[in-house]
Description:
Number of helices: 10
Mean pLDDT: 82
CATH class of the largest domain: Mainly Beta
Structural class: alpha+beta
Helix content: 40-55%
CATH topology of the largest domain: Immunoglobulin-like
Largest sheet: 4 strands, antiparallel
Low-confidence stretches: 1-7, 171-182
Strand content: 15-25%
Number of domains: 3
Distance between the termini: 19 Å
Number of strands: 8
Shape: globular
Amino acid sequence: MRLNTGVPLSLNIRNELFGAVVADSARYDENYQSGFRYNGKVITYKVLKSDTSLIDMDDESDASFIDFYYSMKQSNLEKYDSIAVLISQREYSNAAAILAGINDTNEQEEYLSAFYNLYLTKIVFDSTLSAQDSSFLLDMAYSHSLLYGDAVYLARNVLFLEIHDVTLESNLRRAVFSKQLDEIKLLIQPNPASVYSQIRLNDELFSGRIQLFDVNSNLSMDKVIINGFLDVKSLLQGIYFVKVYGAEGSLSQCKLVIIR
């Protein structure tokens, strides 16, 4: 089976990257469990939706992926995706109709619905925002994307703000910092990569901030990832230096090769 780009994705890698999410058995830091769990589902659904061949790979584990995919397809995630598509096509009334039918199931969806409601009623019409509206957008823009998801990025885009999420301190990261730096093991697979890589820190799927620099020390990527999944489709072919960050700063770094 292949991703849409034609790059093979093995059954083992599929299960390793997303198996715990679709089976709802992934372990998250207790301080951020709700946000991490929801965003893990968002990322997994978007990957499966972009390449549905990943759902059925002739293995008994497919059942979990099939159940997850069709469950998410009936959930609010699909409705939010439809709203984003309709907005890009300037079909604002249709987007508003879908939004009106959404019943939020968690805090992340509550914020996303609030953003889209503000966008569809005021921002697209260049209406003057109230002090309360502006305060909401600023609060959301400065929230953490791992906790509040797409609403954070949307608010930042509307306000033309470039904000880098700080690394959330977690029980896992506190444990990592109790070790010497030479004991920290950073693993990136596949490497070389074309579409995605999986990042592990001391055999745990890494969630947190990463940076990628090209051979000329130019910053090529600065983002927060969850469950170790790193999308590299936007990177040009070449060699990159990857840095991962914990609550107290840089943890470790290694090389990643991108091929096209």
